[in-house]
């Protein structure tokens, strides 16, 4: 395993997937900074603030729901 860059059990494409996300994010930031257009492929490749807030709402709801007795599901706040 001396030549492996990732832990055992992860496919080699695992690290390339993250590289692609970070590359497209950096390209988008650079384009917006320079008032340039971004390709639709780069814009749709990573989550924004809205998706992040929704994800955190989901996690907070799951944690709160796990603390309740006999409740199977709690609706997410929109």
Secondary-structure blueprint of this entry?
Elements: H1 13-33, H2 40-43, H3 49-66
Protein name: Gfo/Idh/MocA-like oxidoreductase C-terminal domain-containing protein
Walk me through what this model shows.
With 78 residues, the protein is mainly α. It folds into two domains: 10-46; 48-78, no CATH class. It has three helices and no strands. It has helices spanning 13-33, 40-43, 49-66. The chain is flat, with a radius of gyration of 19 Å. The model has no long low-confidence stretch (mean pLDDT 80). This is Gfo/Idh/MocA-like oxidoreductase C-terminal domain-containing protein. It comes from Rotaria magnacalcarata.
Compact summary:
With 78 residues, this protein is an all-alpha fold.
Strand content: under 5%
Terminal residue distance:
47 Å
Measured on Cα atoms, how large is the radius of gyration?
A: 19 Å
Please indicate the count of domains.
2
Tertiary shape: flat
Sequence of secondary-structure elements: HHH
Helical segment tally?
3
The main pleated sheet reads as: none
Keywords, separated by commas or semicolons:
mainly alpha, 78 residues, 55% helix, 3 helices, Gfo/Idh/MocA-like oxidoreductase C-terminal domain-containing protein
């Amino acid at each position: 395993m001396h030549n492996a860059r990732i832990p055992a059990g992860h496919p080699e494409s695992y690290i390339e997937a993250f590289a692609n996300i970070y590359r497209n994010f950096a390209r988008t930031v650079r384009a917006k900074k320079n008032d340039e257009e971004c390709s639709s492929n780069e814009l749709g490749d990573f989550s924004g603030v809205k998706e992040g807030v929704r994800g955190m709402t989901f996690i907070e709801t799951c944690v709160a729901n796990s603390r309740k007795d006999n409740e199977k599901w709690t609706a997410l706040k929109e």
